[in-house]
Every structure is written in structure tokens, then in C-alpha cells.
Amino acid sequence: MATQATDAAAGKWVKCAGCKELVYRKQFEALQRVCPLCNYHQRLRASERIAFTADEGSFREMFADIVSADPLGFPDYGDKLRGVMRQTGMNEAVVTGEASIGGYPVVLGVLDFHFRAGTMSAAVGTKVAKSMEHGRETGRPVIQFIASGGARVHEGLHALTQMAKTSAAVARLQAAKVPFLVVLTDPSMAGVMASYASLGDVTLAEPGALIGFTGPRVIEQTCRIKLPPDHQTSEFQLDHGMVDLVCDRIKLKPTLTALLKALMGPLPETKEGR
């Protein structure tokens, strides 16, 4: 035990946020920050998600200059934004851009829960909608990774209207017959889940992710009912038709590649036998 504690101090071990056990860091990282003991999927930064999913060196960020304003003059909101920008090195809670996955050109949108709980501000909604418009214009499939607590209360109605904006962008994308894939991660909640995150042609989810509109404690306290066990998990949503597949993170890239092949056909190199 003393040796294990020494290794942990040296950074060789990491404590799982799920089972609370010490896990060998190299194994944890090799599984893309998933616990080998309990399969708990640790929340990722947007940069980590892109590194694990996109082909190496293929990601090109777009719309990075779109940042949140303070339309309501909400107390301390500007200071909080500047603080989280410094802390995360990000301008907003979503990163958007072009990439390739398994050789297939795509448009990505990746929410980061570490930036104001991945909440959807006017800037986030605009970046998501623009990424979908770019997919429609170029014919690239759009993949949105969800990790959000909902609409950002500091922007009031300005944030809530992003639900309509992003949903309309999905409608235009689908009218153009461009595939739209959604990957739900922990958590996928509230206004984001009630808008574009629930409109994918194919919806994948990571194991154990919290998925829903309102948290279970709020529902129980408001409606005074006892909810079914694990009713807002990925697995429950799969059983009840809200999710198409629950996919371990380590299998996510090959699964997305297979879906892109099914939706877009073989790559030109494959057709030519190269």
C-alpha cells in the first residue's frame, strides 16, 4: 500500500471519480480516460475529445472569433467569463471546425462541460448553427458532441432562443440530406437536449451518461413521484428508443467511421481499389 501511495504521489496512479479506486494512469489514458475497473467515462475537455476522435492533424477550428457578450448586464457575468476563459484557454463552451474521421470529411461541434457547464449561450448557439450551415454548404456530415447543463441563465431569453436557432439549422441540414450524428456524453441535459441534441439522424451515447431535461431530484420534488432507477441514463434511454446505440469511448471512432461509410458510401480510394 505504501508503494501504491508513493506511485500515486508521483503521478503514476489516478483516482477514479466513479468507483473511487486507484487506477494505473497509463492504462486509464490508454482507454481514453475510462476506468478499467468500473467503466466510468471521465468527462473530457473538448481538445481531448477531438484528439481521440478526429484523424491526427485533420482538425481545423472555425468560428473561434465568436464569443459571448453580456446582453443583460448580469451581475459578475463578465468577470466569470473572463475567469473561465483564462482557466480553460477557450473562448466559449463549444469548439467547432472541420476534421476527418476514418478518412471521411466531417464538421465537428464539441461542447466542453468545463466551460460554464457547457451551457448554451448566444455565442454557442451561433457557432453550432454556423457549423451546421457549413456542413449543409459543403455536404460534409455534421457530428455534434454534447456535454451540457442546458441554456445559460446569465443570458436569459437570448440563450433560450438558441434552441429554435439550432433546431432550424438541423431542419435545413436534413432537408439538404446531409447526415447529422449526435454523441451524448455526461451530462446531456435541459435546453441543449431539448433542441438540436435530440434531432440527430443517428444518436449515440457513452455508457452511464446522464441524459434528460430536468435533473431527477427536481422532478421528484416537483411532481412528488418516485422515478424508475437509472431512468436518465444512456442505457435507459436506449431501452426506450431515445438512443440508437450506447458505445464505449474506445470504440467510438471506429463506430463513427462505420456509420459514415454506411451513410456516405466507401471512400474514393476504396472504390478504386487503392
Biggest sheet layout: 7 strands, mixed
Task: Give the strand tally.
Answer: 9
Structural class: alpha/beta
Using only C-alpha atoms, the radius of gyration works out to 19 Å
* SSE succession: HEEHHEHEEHEHEHEHHEHH
- Count of alpha/pi helices: 11
Catalogue the unreliable spans.
none
CATH class of the largest domain: Alpha Beta
Strand order of the largest sheet: 3-4-5-6-7-8-9
Q: What is the CATH H-level superfamily of the largest domain?
A: 2-enoyl-CoA Hydratase, Chain A, domain 1
| CATH architectural category of the largest domain | Alpha-Beta Complex
Tally of separate domains: 2
Helix content: 25-40%
The fold-level CATH name of the largest domain is 2-enoyl-CoA Hydratase, Chain A, domain 1
Characterize this entry briefly.
38% of the residues lie in helices and 17% in strands. By secondary structure, the chain is α/β, with parallel strands linked by helices. It has a seven-stranded mixed sheet with strand order 3-4-5-6-7-8-9, sandwiched between helices. Strands 1-2 form a two-stranded antiparallel sheet.
